[in-house]
Amino acid sequence: MGHCLAKATNDGDDSDHNVDLAGGNVHLIATKEGWEQKMAEAKTDGKIVIANFSASWCGPCRIIAPFYVELSEKHQSVMFLTVDVDELTEFSTSWDIKATPTFFFLKDGQQLDKLVGANKPELQKKVTAILDLKAPCET
After folding, report:
1. Distance (Å, rounded) from C-alpha 68 to C-alpha 138?
2. How far apart are CA 17 and CA 32, in angstroms?
3. If DSSP codes are grouped into helix, strand and coil, which group holds residue 100?
4. Among candidates 109, 58, 57, which has minimal Cα distance to 81?
5. Rounded to an integer, what distance in angstroms lies between the CA atom of residue 138 and that of residue 47?
6. pTM (whole model) above 0.85
7. Helix or strand or coil: residue 114?
């Protein structure tokens, strides 16, 4: 279970940018506006948000991405976001991202939980726990 430390500079190699970080029901966030729009949408829909702060150059991020996509297809009641830390360096810093991937679990913009590192069993467990919180409202 490794994780990549955030590297602040983008060395201009965009050839493999946005590689496999999103898909399924995962929305890739590359602007602050995009983030705010999704947050507002989630609030309106009463959805829990899982935000994956990730980078295309980070091996563990790429390894867990397909699993994250799979989760997004299984759990339609949750909004899955991937934030590209290279596109949103300052924004990521404001979330105190020390390593990628870091997953935040949010409701109404408030942090419920977080997970650092590409840990599939732990991610699965936290997603299940979050869904259990919601369960009573859904028939």
Report:
1. 23
2. 18
3. strand
4. 109
5. 12
6. no
7. strand
Neighbours of 50 (CB within 10 A): 26
Tell me whether residue 58 is one of the annotated catalytic residues.
yes
* Residues 78/130, Cβ–Cβ less than 8 Å: yes
Q: Which residue out of 39, 58, 106, 118 is catalytically annotated?
A: 58
pLDDT digits (tens, 9 = 90+) for 3-27: 565 444 444 444 344 456 788 999 9
Q: Are 51 and 107 in contact (CB under 8 A)?
A: no
Q: How many CA atoms lie within 13 A of 44 on its CB side?
A: 6
- Catalytic, 61? Answer yes
> For 23, which DSSP code?
B
Alpha-carbon span 83 to 81, nearest angstrom: 6
Among 48, 61, 83, 130, which one carries the catalytic annotation? 61
Q: C-alpha distances in angstroms, 89 versus 12, 23, 82, 121?
A: 14, 22, 14, 28
Kindly state the helix (H) or strand (E) to which residue 4 belongs, with its residue range: strand 4-5
pLDDT digits (tens, 9 = 90+) for 66-80: 999 999 999 999 999
Beta-sheet pairing, 48-54 with 78-84: parallel
